[in-house]
Ubiquinol-cytochrome c reductase iron-sulfur subunit
Amino acid sequence: MTVEWRGKPVWIVNRTPEMIERTEALEVDRLADPDSSVPQQPAYIEGYMRSIKPEIGVLVGICTHLGCSPLFKPEPDAEGVGTTNWPGGFFCPCHGSRFDLAGRVFTNVPAPTNLVVPPYRFDSDEIIVVGEDKETA
Ligand code: FES
């Protein structure tokens, strides 16, 4: 689902165990910043899924190249993503940037950094508050 935060689209992505496995199995040399060294996420976001709960992704849906909105292409080897051995993720049709299901950018694409993870927290198992976290609540 897509919600809006500060005028930007924010994707809430339900990631299945199989999607998480595919993301974990991705060869890190295919990614430009596999460990999220560039601060594109709050400090409390850790791990390869870049989220509080691995099964729930929260990502700003704006390409870090020039701001287009990438397409959700979760299925392996989806068509129209311009590559083979696709593990599922997000594809930006404007200039061909690719991101995995955690929003980590692939190498050799125009986008320089991973997708942004906004501040967020869980109010309950079913309610996510975007724009607030433990520190600001
Ligand atoms: S805006 Fe996404 S690749 Fe250029």
In short: The domain at 1-137 is CATH 2.102.10.10 (Rieske Iron-sulfur Protein). Residues 17-25 form the longest helix (9 residues). The beta strands are 2-5, 8-14, 56-60, 71-73, 89-91, 98-100, 120-122, 128-130. The first strand starts at residue 2 and ends at 5.
